[in-house]
Specification:
The complex is a heterodimer. Chain A has twelve helices and two strands. Chain A is an all-alpha fold. Chain A has one domain (3-199). In chain A, helix 1 (3-26) runs parallel beside helix 5 (122-140), helix 1 (3-26) runs antiparallel to helix 8 (165-191) and helix 9 (201-214) packs across helix 10 (220-235). Chain B has two domains: 27-147 and 286-372, Response regulator (Rossmann fold), CATH 3.40.50; 149-279 and 381-396, 3-Layer(aba) Sandwich (Rossmann fold). Chain B is elongated and about 65 Å long. In chain B, strands 6, 7, 8, 9, 10, 11, 15 and 16 form an eight-stranded mixed sheet that branches. Chain B has a five-stranded parallel sheet with strand order 2-1-3-4-5, with helices on both faces. In chain B, strands 12-13-14 form a three-stranded antiparallel sheet, with no helix packed on it. Chain B starts with a helix and ends in a 7-residue tail after the last strand. Chain B has helices spanning 2-23, 43-62, 82-95, 107-120, 149-164, 178-194, 216-224, 236-248, 264-269, 288-302, 315-333, 343-355; strands at 29-36, 70-77, 100-102, 123-126, 142-144, 168-174, 198-199, 206-208, 229-233, 255-256, 275-279, 360-362, 365-369, 375-376, 378-385, 388-396. The chains are: A mainly alpha, B alpha/beta. The interface between A and B is large, with 38 and 44 residues.
């Protein structure tokens, strides 16, 4: 593989993890527009641990994920009293808050950014991507997932049958935050430089877009979405100044023809059946 | 439905292959790469860079090419996104096999692209990044054809203080931008204090964010401090917002800032307010090489769709023109073969040429590179008033003077 495609696949892996963080939260019917904030927390915590404390990367990533999960849960409690668009706006506010904090946090470089991380291999990024993907596929086959879907479909009904909807929602928020933090830690160690601008609103939107484009009802959708979001603008380079416009048009076309995203359960079943028959 | 997607994806892949084939070099060709932001927040600079490079390519090829080989400049858009800039670097060095790269423009993009340049052992030179220490952290393959803002301020501040008799100044800056923050919160307060000028709000400079359209509250606060001069840490497009508001509120005090202030547009925002800034090039400068460059480039820029009709060549156009011209010079003078099998050796020759550069004639005079990878060249402290820039002081960025 050329170094160029290796770079792109690393970006896909990082975006895929970010998209997964949104997917998990979305599975309980909550839309988070602030996951770049958790990604930023993960990036800064992991980088601090590897650069200043000389921790090994894997341990730093786990610590960053735990820290972000704790913050996710703390933020999740008050935030999840809000629903739908109000929650989306509150999470957006959280994301901006994290970015502004990092901008003024001189201990980690402030607006000047933070250096010193060691570059990680593409394989390492995808080891995390694959591991978390397997974890989510297993989760999708568990009873817990059914509870999450129940909360997604009708929260009141789920409550009435005795499910602890608050725990489910806050738990999903914490798990999503942890996955976003891993994505951030890997981002920091792939690009070996981070600055608060990396974790702005646009990044959160990329996560949501990858999920919606790839298919928001199956975990594998995020892989497809992340792949397209990274590769399409590159493949459209022959259009020069028009490439981003063409990219937008393609996104609209895909969503017009497949509202549920490119991958959904029937398509996934069809693909796996065909493979099984062959 | 599935068929349609297959068609879509098939079409895209074909397009990708075709565009890949276009850049795959013919034998007798010298390939140079460039990373510019043709879309995104700095699209105007990126697009005018593109026009500049195409002009240079044509000039060189019309004059017989480089050692008889055709010059091919592969220009990639990074949309001012660091990750895209880093991938562009990988594409140019890995797939397109260019000899050297010009760009990227922003310091944020340089921070992630320069390490890739070192990894792939390919020279890259930024046309605009001036955040302190970015090239220094990525030796030996990274260079910047720009001067550290800290060095420039040491000449611009004394001129400003003397000319306007400033006893106290106040600071306003764009907190979202790294270069602006470093100019306003680190460089300027230090240099002004050294010059014996009081910085009224040195501990808590007034900030705004890139993209803010209303800075009236900030300017009211500035006015209440009653300063003799205003330090603006921002690029010209943001600074225009501040200067317009200053005029509206009647705060007609002289302004000082870094190189990102230089543009013709800022002079039109409030012609009565004097603006002092450092530059290594400005479109009305009085030097034969620069005049010829402006005369050739300006009509091309103004005829390009997507660029303003009254646009003038910017300092970054001049810088990227110099960068690629240096590379061409390196190919000519240091025995670069341009053959695929010698790629590594050729790239090393270009790096050594850049590191040991002597007496290359740029627009402001001779250019060479310091140990930290930043350009050492002449600069001007210019004052903009009544719609035109005028050189007031000429300096050199070398530690001991003498360029």
């Amino acid at each position: 593989m050329s170094t160029y495609y290796a770079g792109l696949f690393a970006d896909i892996g990082i975006l895929f993890l970010g998209a997964m963080s949104v997917y998990i939260i979305l599975a309980t019917g909550q839309l988070s527009l602030g996951n770049a904030g958790f990604m930023g927390i993960g990036a800064y915590v992991a980088s601090f641990l590897t650069v200043e404390m000389q921790w090994p990367l894997t341990a730093a990533l786990i610590a960053a994920a735990l820290a972000a999960a704790a913050i996710g849960i703390v933020v999740g409690f008050p935030a999840l009293r809000l629903k739908g668009i109000y929650l989306a706006i509150a999470t957006l506010g959280f994301g901006e808050m994290v970015r502004s904090f990092l901008l003024n946090f001189d201990r980690m470089g402030g607006s000047g950014g933070f250096h010193g991380m060691k570059h990680v291999s593409l394989e390492y990024i995808w080891l995390w991507g694959g591991g978390i993907f397997v974890l989510i596929v297993l989760l999708e086959r568990s009873r817990l997932w059914l509870e999450m879907r129940a909360v997604h479909d009708d929260e009141t009904a789920a409550n009435l049958v005795g499910l602890n909807t608050t725990a489910t929602k806050v738990g999903a928020f914490g798990f999503g935050a942890a996955v976003a933090a891993v994505s951030g830690g890997l981002f920091a160690h792939h690009h070996v430089y981070i600055e608060p601008g990396n974790f702005g609103f646009e990044r959160s939107i990329d996560f949501v877009l990858a999920v919606i484009l790839g298919g928001s009802t199956v975990g594998a959708g995020a892989v497809v979405g992340a792949g397209l979001l990274v590769l399409l603008p590159e493949w459209l380079r022959f259009l020069a100044d028009w490439r981003l416009a063409a990219f937008g048009v393609l996104l609209v076309l895909v969503l017009l023809t497949r509202r549920q995203g490119i991958l959904d359960r029937p398509l996934l079943d069809k693909l796996s059946l065909r493979r099984a028959r062959a | 439905m599935l068929e349609m997607h297959k068609l879509l994806i098939g079409g895209l892949m074909t397009a990708a292959l075709v565009s890949g084939a276009q850049v795959a070099q013919a034998q007798n060709q010298v390939n140079i790469g460039a990373i510019v932001p043709s879309s995104g927040p700095f699209a105007e600079w990126g697009r005018s860079n593109t026009v500049t490079l195409k002009m240079l390519e044509k000039e060189v090829n019309d004059a017989g090419g480089v050692n008889g080989a055709k010059l091919n400049i592969v220009i990639l858009d990074d949309a001012a996104k660091p990750a895209q800039a880093a991938n562009n670097m990988r594409k140019l060095a890995g797939d397109d096999k260019v000899l050297a790269v010009a760009g990227p423009l922003t310091s944020s993009a340089c921070e992630v692209t320069f390490p890739v340049a070192n990894e792939l052992k390919t020279v890259t030179t930024s046309q605009a990044s001036s955040k302190p220490g970015v090239a220094k952290a990525n030796r030996p393959w990274a260079f910047r054809n720009t001067v550290d803002e800290g060095i420039l301020a040491k000449t611009s501040v004394p001129y400003f203080t003397k000319t306007f008799g400033a006893k106290q100044v106040a600071i306003i800056y764009d907190a979202k931008d790294a270069v602006s923050t470093s100019i306003a919160t680190k460089i300027m307060p230090g240099v002004f204090t050294e010059a014996g000028v009081k910085v009224i709000n040195g501990d808590a400079p007034i900030s705004f964010n890139t993209g803010d359209l209303d800075v009236s509250a900030q300017v009211t606060k500035l006015k209440s401090m009653n300063p003799d001069g205003i330090v603006i840490g921002a690029d010209y497009s943001q600074a225009i917002t501040v200067i317009r508001e200053m005029k509206r509120q009647g705060l007609m005090k002289p302004v000082i800032g870094g190189t990102p202030l230089i543009s013709s547009a800022i002079l039109k925002a409030a012609p009565e307010i004097p603006v002092v800034a450092p530059a290594t090039f400005y479109s009305t400068m009085d030097a034969p090489k620069a005049k010829k460059f402006v005369a050739n480039l300006q009509p091309l820029l103004r005829n390009t769709s997507g660029l303003p009709k009254e646009i003038e060549p910017s300092m970054y156009d001049a810088n990227i023109y110099e960068i690629v011209s240096m590379y061409i010079d390196a190919v000519k003078k240091s025995g670069v073969t341009g053959k695929a099998e010698n790629l590594d050796a050729d790239r090393t020759k270009i790096r050594d040429y850049m590191a040991n550069l002597k007496g290359y004639e740029g627009f402001s005079g001779a250019i060479h590179f310091g140990e930290d990878g930043d350009a050492i060249k002449n600069f001007f402290i210019v004052q903009g008033q009544n719609g035109a820039w005028e050189t007031k002081v000429t300096g050199c960025s070398a530690a001991g003077g003498g360029c």
